[in-house]
Amino acid sequence: MSNTAGQVIKCKAAVSWEAGKPLVIEEVELAPPQANEVRIKILFTSLCHTDVYFWEAKGQKPAFPRIFGHEAAGVVESVGEGVTDLKPGDTVLPVFTGECKECRHCKSEESNMCDLLRINTDRTVMLSDGKSRFSAKGKPIYHFLGTSTFSEYTVAHVGSVAKINPAAPLDKVCVLSCGISTGLGAAINVAKPKKGSSVAVFGLGAVGLAAAEGARISGASRIIGVDLNASRFEQAKKFGVTEFVNPKDHDKPVQEVIAEMTDGGVDRSIECTGSVAAMISAFECVHDGWGVAVLVGVPNRDDSFKTHPINLLNERTLKGTFFGNFKPRTDLPRLVEKYVNKELDLQLEKFITHEVSFSDINKAFDYMLKGEGLRCIIRMGA
Asked: Is the residue at 351 inside a domain?
């Protein structure tokens, strides 16, 4: 692949020209990587709710034409000036956030919120020069989350690219670059349930099921799934969920229902919906004295959270997490290594419910819009 280094590459990309309209497979031109950038050949990518949310452009600033996609795996094609820890041929996961390794957050053992590269949904160009690397039909195409993986090739900042074991099955580990790691890390890195403990998971989409998977791996004996959609309950059993609560089936707040089920409350709760009502329930359903609630879901911009201070004074703990507290370049390679070596009983195949060729990428959107399945893998070479 190195014979294309330093040159403009022509490749196929799924371009979103208008909000909510089907993506169009177009020939695009991709400029070479600039300083501290990496050009990647994408082999597998998957569709996340975040892609759909910004494609629909409901409630946020629209930016079109744009190339979406941020869960993916591929191989480095070439590197820009100043890139020393990646080389052509390396197997990588591009990530929607980053780790510059220089800022206070990156140097802290407690944070993964890089000052330079933390998620910025409004940024549509590259950091180094404020320009897009993509163009088609004579006009620039906007980037998305610094990754734009719905393209045969893409350019990303080196700080948002995790080098992983080349033996890893890329059609599975590609889902670790966003939602699955977010839920899994919320459990194993933040909630940290003890063996034999009880955990409530609010929201049984892909992120919530990843949180349940993390609770199962940690040895929790009771995992209570909370969701308004009862059709999700059967599938959730595969991820270790042992009991189910549908708030619509009760005439009292769901936190009271859970407290009655668990003799005062669960040991840990993980909220994965973004609903403020669910956040309050998740916090108030943990046991006093030792209960820990972890918020994962992203609320609406104007939402606020209200609970009585006595809930905190009674020694309940409320935490938030971003990307499961994983540092992309430091921790993702370790997570992949544990998966490859079977040191962690993480069953990624359970999350992958559909697979389509790149030319059929719009089918992946159809599946998600209909609420069918969890993750759809898109094979770039097909």
From this structure: yes
